[in-house]
Amino acid sequence: MKLTQDYPKIFLYHRFCEPGSTIWGGISQDEFEWHIERVTEKYEVICFAEFLLRKQRQASTRNCAIITVDDGYRDFYQYAYPVLKKSSVPATLFVTSDFIQQRIWLWPDKLKYIVQQLQSGRYSFEFNHDCFEINTLDNASRLASWMRLSNTCIRLPLTKREMLIKSLSESMGIEVPRFPSKDYEACNWNELREMQMNRIEIGSHTLTHPVLSMIPVDEMLKELNDSKVEIEQMLNGQVSTFCYPHGGENDINDAVVKATAEAGYRGAVHGNPPREWNPFLVPRMGADDDRKEFIWRLCGMEYVTARIKALL
Ligand SMILES: [Zn+2]
């Protein structure tokens, strides 16, 4: 613990569900409550904006933890926010503003919707000379099939990605509704306003959730600037923090980081391993229902192993 007390324990969540149930890539309310109990036993929980402020003032961030949540799904409001509110624990929610505005689906959800609607069985789907095997015989195979499709889509330019999703929808005979269905919907602005009054910081996660390093510069600037302006207008407050969509090694480059700083944000998070301190490349650790893994990360062991690896 002492070895890593200067490293921020920043956790990343996406989706939540009701107590005792499971969700792909998400965590149930009771497990989340267990996380919050463990975090608050040992750490001071602050929001990301507060963390950046302390760094800027060279104040101590020792033994601080940060809860961050990406995208802005309504299940955060339904299941996680009540847990945080009950214990008066702050968090930072990064929202994709066109999603909140109910203008778009997040594209991985379209794929998930199709895969989840399929009857149990084995299917094959061809796109651009690539053949995808889709197995929906059990939940794990369904999840693996969705991830294969998602991993292909993430590397495609927007128009190609949409073509793939359309083609999958047609060949599987599953029509994707125009707006996200109940399981995939976003918080609305009123819910965000209420949460903002109760220690939830709202940061930006772009307009449409693109891979910023893959889109033209003018679009990248629009994603950074317009989302900030829209959230600020709708919530009548300042948006000072940002989260890179997808956030992997290749999803961000120097131009994206520079443009994020120039857009007026004070810092940004991603999902890569820690490097030297840069407020626009702040690392986070995933959190799911693996309790052992969570405690490992909570103790800062990820940082210890990263430091050891760097020495090798
Ligand atoms: Zn996201």
UniProtKB/TrEMBL annotation:
InterPro entries for the chain: Glyco_hydro/deAcase_b/a-brl, NODB_dom, Polysacch_Deacetylase
GO biological process: carbohydrate metabolic process
Organism: Geoanaerobacter pelophilus
Occurrences of domain NodB homology (ranges): 63-312
Primary location class: secreted
Ribonucleoprotein listed as a keyword: no
Record's keyword terms, sorted: Signal
Alphabetized PROSITE patterns for the sequence: NODB
Name of a matching Pfam family: Polysacc_deac_1
Name this protein carries in UniProt: Polysaccharide deacetylase family protein
One MF annotation (Gene Ontology) recorded for this entry: hydrolase activity, acting on carbon-nitrogen (but not peptide) bonds
Subcellular location: Secreted
GO cellular component annotations of the record: extracellular region
